[in-house]
Specification:
Order of helices and strands: EEEHEHHHEHHEEHEEEEHHEEH
CATH class: Alpha Beta
CATH architecture: Alpha-Beta Complex
Number of domains: 1
Number of strands: 13
CATH superfamily: Spore Coat Polysaccharide Biosynthesis Protein SpsA, Chain A
Helix content: 25-40%
């Protein structure tokens, strides 16, 4: 059973400056809900209610969002706006939230390793909130984990000209949409990419990843790459890539953020 999820949320969000100078990128709103809200709901729908955050400086707004606000609730309790707090309050009631601070920005792999005290010796999901997914991607991945009991990464096909922005996998399809990973490269040059299957911000990791991360040397950009540790798992055992069913928005980019805003506005408010 996957009961825990980890949200790496210590990054600076420099592509959204100056807004992210004081507002965590995970708190940027898609219409009227912050990105983090969508990720937590996805976890809950997958049966995951123990949620840890790896944070950094200027991220306290996340903790405030995931806490009751008696003054605000008193203010709106007799108005039509009270229902707008229902989902957030449900999260607070049903989930437990824990936090650890990443003291240095040394890559996604380092962020995941920093979260080890929140996870312990358990398999867990990793959610990157700025990859906003619709279609209950984590639910699909949990079902797959229950079958294979190994690390799983969500992948989608991207334009060949964009492979240098992602971790790229290659392998053999063992069932429809499920690929046994044989190779995994972080942000390869376009002419060296093994495929156009890109890893997106949804993972299920087995706890041996922590020891592998401890022994992973800095890679591309001088950072500890999660991709390198997962590749070591693939060499020692089995890692699966899953071509998920659903829609994903890259809300780490302005273009993707606007696309998500328009999509959810059309879906929920028109």
């Amino acid at each position: 059973m996957i009961k825990k999820a980890l949200f790496p949320a210590a990054g600076y969000g420099t592509r959204f400056l100056p807004a992210t100078k004081s507002v965590p990128k995970e708190m940027l709103p898609i219409v009227n809900k912050p990105l983090i809200h969508y990720g937590i709901k996805e976890c809950m729908n997958a049966g995951i209610f123990e949620i840890g955050f790896v944070t950094g400086r200027n991220k306290r707004a996340i903790e405030d969002y995931l806490d009751f606000s008696p003054e605000l609730e008193e203010k709106v309790k007799d108005s039509s706006k009270a229902k707008l707090l229902h989902e957030t309050n449900e999260m607070i009631q049903k989930c437990t939230f824990t936090y650890v601070r990443q003291k240095e920005m040394l890559g996604l792999g380092h962020a995941v390793l920093t979260g080890e005290p929140l996870i312990g010796n358990n398999p867990f999901a990793v959610v990157l909130a700025d990859d906003l997914c619709e279609g209950e991607v984590l639910t699909q991945m949990v079902e797959l984990y229950n079958k294979y009991k190994c690390t799983i990464v969500a992948v989608e096909e991207v334009d060949k000209n964009e492979v240098n922005k992602y971790g790229i996998i290659d392998g053999k399809e063992i069932e429809d949409g499920v690929i046994m990973v044989k190779n995994m490269v972080e942000k390869p040059d376009i002419d060296k990419a093994p495929s156009n299957l890109a890893v997106i911000g949804r993972y299920i990791l087995t706890p041996d990843i922590f020891d592998l991360l401890r022994n992973t040397k800095p890679g591309k950009g001088g950072e500890i790459q999660l991709t390198d540790a997962i590749m070591a798992q693939a060499q020692e055992g089995m890692v699966l890539a899953y071509k998920f069913k659903g829609k994903r928005f890259d809300c780490g980019s302005v273009k993707g953020f606007i696309e998500a805003t328009n999509y959810f506005y059309e879906k929920e408010f028109k």
